[in-house]
Queue: 2 jobs
Job 1
Amino acid sequence: MEINVWGARGSYICPQRSYSYYGGNTTCLEMISSGGNTLILDAGSGIIPLGREIIKSNKIIKDFHILLTHTHIDHLQGFPFFMPIYLQETKIHIHCGRWDVSAVSQTFERLFATQYSPIKTMKNLQAEIQFHEMDEFEIYNIMDFQVIPVRTQHTTDTYAYKITDEDGSTFGFITDHEIDNPDINNQIIKEFYGCNLVFHDGQLDKSEYSWQKGWGHSTVEKAIENGLRMNTPHLGIFHHSPDHQDAVIDSIRNDILASYNKDMKISFIREGDKFILPI
Ligand SMILES: [Zn+2]
Ligand SMILES: [Zn+2]
């Protein structure tokens, strides 16, 4: 499978030049299966250029599938500007872990309300929007991807996803996860054990964590610890803090890698990165 990063930032968009190396768009990944199908992960602002690119490429997709981790705004805010929602004869399938799915559709509906948008209601969209809920630990087939949702420790219902392609390659997407509750974290380690590539929340440094404990995010150190416990060959640090300009991420990276001596490869994920699995 192929994974293209359209947004690696957490919390809010950072358009300034000092963020341009790692990128300022919020969470969105494009996954392309070995069979050529596209699965989109989250609808942060990165989904806006992705939608534009899909339209420009003349790729004909009638059914778009978006896998949603949760409804915090940094994972949703691009949706009203995702061009395919304005196309006739198009369906947008939003797959999410099981929480109150009517609340999820209501949250989406609010994105288009008069107070925020000229669209007024989702009913005015040309595309048909459908919501599909999933249970934790169950296996779902979305096109030729196999998806397993696993709950993370966050401040609202949030799911990590293990995604397997027909070619056997596996990807773990664990964003917005605080490593504090061993019961939740051990389930994550177990389900994602041995994935070819794992993206993991690494929003904070240690001093930030001391005052942001309980906000549902991990330090880079804890993310690496989790990656090692999962026995993944490649860990991607993801969901970068808006307080971390490029120079800050570079210095965190250099400090960590200076004393790091394990085999697991560590990447600090950048917008525009492309990964091909299996490596
Ligand atoms: Zn987030
Ligand atoms: Zn969140």
Note: The chain has one domain: 2-276.
Job 2
Amino acid sequence: MIRHVLSGRMRELCSLPERFAPFAREARNLILSYLGAESLEESLESAIEKCGRRPTFPLILASLCTASSLPDCPTGSLYLDRSGNIAIRQSSCIYCGRCLKEGFTSYARTELLRSLEILKSGESVTAIVAPSITGQFDASYAELESALRRVGFNRVVNVKIGARMMAEIEGKELENCIECSDWMITSCCASIKELGLRLLPVIEEKHSSAKTPVEYTSALCKEEERDGRIIFIGPCLAKISECSRNANVDSVLLFSELEMLFIAEGIVFSKNSDSSRDEDLSPLSRTNGISNAVRSFCSHLSSAISYSGIKEAELALFSSWRRGERPQADLVEIALCSGGCISGPGNTSTFLKRS
Ligand code: SF4
Ligand code: SF4
């Protein structure tokens, strides 16, 4: 199946129109760099051997490409090395994937092969799926569930369950904050978590104490099925980083990697699918999604503000909070990508063609 998936994906990449060249290059680099060699065929077997453990090498590697100007990076982590190649300062990279989306870098730490090993292990495997899967395929949510079963998952659980648990806890916490004239940050964004850990401690300090939606959902699934395996399916590299700290999640697939599995299994969705019933899933993956959910658990919330599509100007603003200035709101929601996870860097080619 692995050989089938990878060769299926390579065929698909070769047939993409020119406009998707950066996407095709990225996916090809992804496969080859994971395999650690120039030749797909030669290194396949050794790569499969590695699948049993989580890779420990850096999440993103700069590709050896030269450029006249550097791509946009919110943390200024990209620079030109002595040979004029684009390089990444790993210590300040927050895995937002913006440079990847623009075709300047490739990422080496895919968990695609590891996920495939789990799927063919014969164990019970649960897919926990980010709500932003809506719109990634020409399919209704019900059709996606059945496609996921076809590629080997036994159970499909939507992370919106965990998002609601997070919102309930945050709503109660915010009531207390407002009583003390304080304010709070909420975010489901794994890159914002990295930002707080690596560069801006104020984000960690003012963030609610709630866990992430993936943490709540995976803990719930583990409670229901102790021996089952869990694969998170989501929009970006930063989620791979988040899940590497979560013992309940065994592996991660990006939407673009799930697309590879569907292609390999010959799964084709009808373009006339009725996805109107999926409307309740997508708000959580858009700007304001979480603050609206928190609002329903906090009766005293009068003002909330959202930031998305974060650039250096927003980072400067967040830094000012560290110096004691506060935002003009009780609740601040932050997502790195413009509009939220719906425009994450791990989108499918179906999504990219449509947008
Ligand atoms: S992934 Fe984001 S933070 Fe990291 S180098 Fe690329 S643009 Fe910068
Ligand atoms: S907004 Fe969503 S897709 Fe974008 S970096 Fe954050 S978690 Fe990933």
Note: The two ends are 31 Å apart (CA to CA).
